[in-house]
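Q: I have two molecules that I believe assemble together. Could you output C-alpha cells for the complex as a whole instead of separate predictions?
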Amino acid sequence: MKLHEKELRAVYTDTLIELMTENSNVVCLEADLGKSSGTVPRVWEAFPDRFFDVGVAEANMIGISAGLANEGMVPFCATFTPFATRRAYDQITISIAYAENPVKIVGTAPGITTAKNGATHMCFQDLAIMRAMPNMRVYCPADVYELRSMVKYMAASKKPEYMQLIREIHSPLFDEDYEFDPHKARVLDQGSDVTVVTTGLTSQFAREAVAMLKQEDIHAEHIHYPSVKPFDVETLLKSVKKTNAVVTAENQNVIGGLGGAVCEVLAENYPVKVKRLGARDRFGEVGDVPYLSETLGFSAKDIAAACRAMQASR
Amino acid sequence: MKIDRIESREQLDQLAKEFRFIVTDIMCRAGGGHIGGSLSLVEIIITLYFRIMNVKPDDPRWEDRDRFILSKGHAGPTLYTALAYRGYFPKELLLTLNANGTKLPSHVDQVITPGVDQTAGSLGQGLSCANGIALANKLQKKTNNVFCVVGDGESQEGQIWEAAMFAAHHKLDNLVAITDYNKMQIDAEVEKIVSLEPVVDKWRSFGWEVFEVDGHDWDEIYDTIQKAIAVKGKPAMIVAHTVKAKGNVCYENRIECHFISIPDEDERKRVIGGVCTEGDEEPFHFNWTEGK
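A: Yes, here they are, computed for all two components at once.
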C-alpha cells in the first residue's frame, strides 16, 4: 500500500510510533478522542508507558503537556480542533506559549472535515487565534507526505507548535522526497494571471480549480502554505508582483486566518486586490464536505469563479 | 549573605521576620502588590527552600533538583525572596520587583527568573503543569520531589480538580501539593463566595493522601511535608491553614489585603510600620547592600 492510500490519521499514528521508537522522550496525549486521531489503540498498545489519555479534560491535557515539555519530553497532544485550541486557549497561551514550553498540539477534524458533528465541533477560528499567539507556530499539512515530514520536524523543533490534522484519505500533492520547512511555501502550479493561496484542505480544492481554469486559458499560480505562521513573505510577493491579483481560500472564517495573513503582508508590502474565500463570519452546520464547502463558498468551483472574476475585473 | 539550610527556631523566626519586611518593603517601593497571599506563605516557602528542597542555586535547572510550582503565581515576591536568600540572584534584584524591564514580575515566570520552575499566574494551571513535571520525572526515573502550592480561591477553578483526578489515577507519589488556605479571596471570604468545604474530604475522595497543618507552625509544616514525601502510591495534599497577610498588622486577616496600593509616602510608612517591631521606625534597619 502506498503512503497516500492511507488516511492521514493513520500516517500521524505511524509517524508517532516511529518517533517514539527512536526517541524515548516522545510522549502521546489524548483527551478521549484518540480513536479519532488514530492513536487509540495503536500507540497506546505500542507504548503503554508513554501514552496518556487524560479523559475529557483538555485544559489539564495542555497543562500536563506543558509540564512534560518543561522537563525535556516531547509531548504530542491531540483532540478535535475546537477543543485543542479555543477551549484551552488561556492554558495554551500561558503554560505553553508564554512559558516557552515546546508542546506539539494537534487539532483533528479541522473546519468542515468534522462534517456530521456539525457547528459545535466545526472550528473556523483556530488558525486566527493560534496565529495571534506570540511564540506559537501554526501548520496545516495538505497530504500524507507533508504530514509525515511535518510531524518529524515538530518532534525535533524546540518551539511550541500547532498542527491541523485532517483525518481522511487525500490525493497526494507531494512525494516521498518532500521535506517540510516552515519558512517555505510551495508553488504547486505556476501561472501569471492570478495567485491562489491555500493551506490544508483548500490546497486540495485549489488543485481542481487550477485545472478547470487552465482549460479556459486562465493560468493561476497556486501557492500552498504548510505554515501559516511563520509566513513565507518572499514567495507570496514574488508571485504577486507577476499576477497583481490574489484569491485566498481556507477551511476557516475569512477573518484572521490565512486570508488575514496574506492581506497583512500585502497591505504592508505590495497592495493588490485580494478576494478571501472561507466561511463568511458564520458558524458551520451538519453536512458532508462537498455540501459544506459549496454552501460556505470555498469549494473548487468557488475558487475557480473567484479567479475568473478577478481576471474579468482587470 | 547566602543561606543554604536552617534548623534553629531562632534563625527561622528571624528569617520569617526579614522575609515579611522585605516582601512588604519591595511591594511598597513598587507602588503595591499582592501582600496577603505572599505573607501567608512565608513559613511554607522558607521551610521548603531552607529545610526540605534539594536544589543547586548556581545551577537553577539542575536536572535532579526538587521542583517547586507556585500555581498561585501572584505570591511571587515571597518566592523571589527565598531565591535571593538561597543565592539564585543578588538580594538587590528584589528592589526591581515590577520595575520596567525587571526579571521579577508580579506573577512568576520561568523564562526570565532564575530558579522559577514553572510560569504561573493565570490561576488553575499550575497543578496540571506539576502533574506533567511529576510524570516526566517518573518516566525519567528520577527520585526528586515535585512541590506545588495552590491557592484556596484558585481551587474554585475546575482545572484544579481535573489535575486532582489525573494525579491520583497515575499514582503521582512524587507530587506534594499544598493549599494555602487563608480563607480569603479578592472579593470576600472564600466561604461567602463559593465554599471549598469540606476541602479535606474533597481531596481525600479524589484519591489523595491529605494532611492538615497550621501553615505558620515550623515543626508542623516540616514534619508534615516529610510525611507527605513518604506517601507511596498516591499524591499528597497538605491543607495549610494560614492567615492572609500574616505578620503585617495593617492588613493581617483583612479582606482588603489581597492587593494593596501604595499611593504615597504616608501610606508606605504606615504599611511598612505594619511589619515593624513596636518602637522601631524601620524594622531591622535592613541593609540592602549586605547581600552583595
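A: One point stands out. Chain B touches chain A through 32 residues (CB under 8 Å).
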